[in-house]
Design brief:
Layout: E1 2-6, H1 10-22, E2 27-31, E3 40-42, E4 55-59, H2 64-76, E5 84-85, E6 90-91, E7 96-97, E8 102-103, E9 108-109, E10 114-115, E11 120-121, E12 126-127, E13 132-133, E14 138-139, E15 144-145, E16 150-151, E17 156-157, E18 162-163
Parallel strand pairs: 1-2, 1-4, 2-3, 5-8, 6-9, 7-10, 8-11, 9-12, 10-13, 11-14, 12-15, 13-16, 14-17, 15-18
Length: 172
């Protein structure tokens, strides 16, 4: 199995590190418009050249909207988008994690959470029980989302912020 990370910046390097720790990829390479080295195959726009049945692609962009746009483009082109979960994180067996999510070291996703497509839960962040993160949410380093919250699509919860119980009410 191969992984092509679109974007070789800081976030791309973090994804590379965690994906390497998982040990499930035979090859991990990048596409990037600005960086050139042995691990960069070419420009981001050349992604389709690397579409193969055993290849996953992940758009490693910190910009939530851009990340979601790329996830949707890859899926439309029938390219597999992985979910990458650091071995040192905790994800409840009752949690639902969408495609294209990354959960970094020491993050916690607690009981009955729904983490939708393209979310980033950064190192040491905690998403407490019964929370819903809509598409493309970024929960920054060390932040805490307490129980019973529904975080709207594309929101960035800044580092160290504590979101109180029900601050973003869950409404169907």
């Amino acid at each position: 199995m191969k992984l092509v990370i679109i974007g070789a910046g800081g976030y791309g390097q973090v994804v590379f590190d965690v994906a390497t720790q998982l040990g499930c990829y035979d090859s991990i390479k990048f596409l990037d418009d600005n960086k050139i080295d042995d691990n960069v195959l070419g420009q981001c726009s050349e992604y389709f050249k690397y579409k193969e049945s055993d290849t996953y692609m992940y758009p490693a962009f910190g910009n939530n909207e851009l990340r979601l746009t790329w996830i949707n483009r890859l899926k439309e082109d029938e390219i597999k988008v992985p979910t990458i979960i650091a071995p040192s994180s905790y994800v409840s067996t009752t949690a639902s994690i969408g495609s294209g999510c990354v959960i970094l070291p020491h993050a916690v996703v607690n009981t009955n959470c729904v983490i939708k497509e393209g979310c980033l839960i950064n190192a040491g962040a905690i998403v407490d029980h019964n929370c819903i993160l809509e598409e493309g949410v970024h929960v920054c380093i060390g932040s805490l989302i307490k129980a019973e919250n529904r975080i709207p699509s594309g929101i960035k919860i800044q580092a160290g912020v504590v979101v109180k119980n029900g601050e973003y009410p869950i409404k169907e």
